Amino acid sequence: MRIKTLIAGICGIGLLPFGGMGVASAEARVAGPNFQLPFPCGETWVGSTGSDAHTGNEIDFNGSATDGDRDRGKTVVAAADGTVVMSEYRTTDGFGNVVKIRHSNGNVTLYAHLDSRSVPSGAKVRQGQKIGAVGKTSAKHRMSAHLHYEQRSASGAILPAVFNGATFRYPGQTLTSNNCAGGGTPSQPQPQPSQPSSKNPYSPEQVCGPGYKQIDSASLGSQGRAVLLYSSATGQNCVTVMRNSGSGKVAMRAYLEVKGQARKTDAGSFQYYAGPVRAKAPRTCVKWGGAIGSAKYDSPFEHCG
Fold first, then answer.
1. Which of 86, 101, 121, 156 could cross-link 19 (Cys pair, CB 3.0–4.6 Å)?
2. Is 0.70 surpassed by the pTM of this model?
3. How is the chain split into domains, by residue range?
4. In the CATH hierarchy, which fold is given to the domain comprising 4-176?
5. Are 146 and 8 in contact (CB under 8 A)?
6. pLDDT exceeds cutoff 50 at 244
């Protein structure tokens, strides 16, 4: 695929946060969906597992063997129907923007280094629906634009990938996508009937997760607000940027910076919210904020508990 020195030691780093990642050399597959290539119908992509850091079953996809960054921004779609169990920017493992989808047999597909993410955690997606765009995001490494793709068992082991009923021919193969059932937009939880349909159906607490309580917020003009939350159970701060309404998608950004540490940011084109961005800051000040379009907020270092 692309120049190997750019990706050697990059993809496959830090898999443990996603749970018990070993190569599934002897693990039996559970009957499940007919996985398709994670690209729109009819597109041809080159898959490779040439990075030295790969354990054997991960695949990096490019449009050609020597395309550099020309794939950046190309559409990535769901390999099968499922539920999004992770959609976030990760800094600890080098994956950058990553989406994970759990499927009917319990297996998981993972899509990493995305330029942008089009689905939130909890969304129900259909095979062929857009979930993001090819990119080169990583908090740790420089690389050419590509899609890092994995199929994992319910226990977290990385399985030999299967597309359209055929096992990928490692270490590399050129494939044409039969993922032809897509279209539409990913589903999101619907507002309650009492809410106007244009209203944002999410709350900051839903975005950050159970146990988080709002401790500060700042207006982003008429567009929405940036919100800082805290969980006493985990000791983590969480920042999300919330739109007031969700008509179409706009550029959004949420960030959290612990004093003395690198800033964590989630940015892209979103319908309802950016984030969550989480970090622990024991006895340390934080800077937080974000933007919706041209409206932005940047706090000073504060909340120094």
1. 156
2. no
3. 4-176, 204-298
4. Glucose Permease (Domain IIA) (2.70.70)
5. no
6. yes
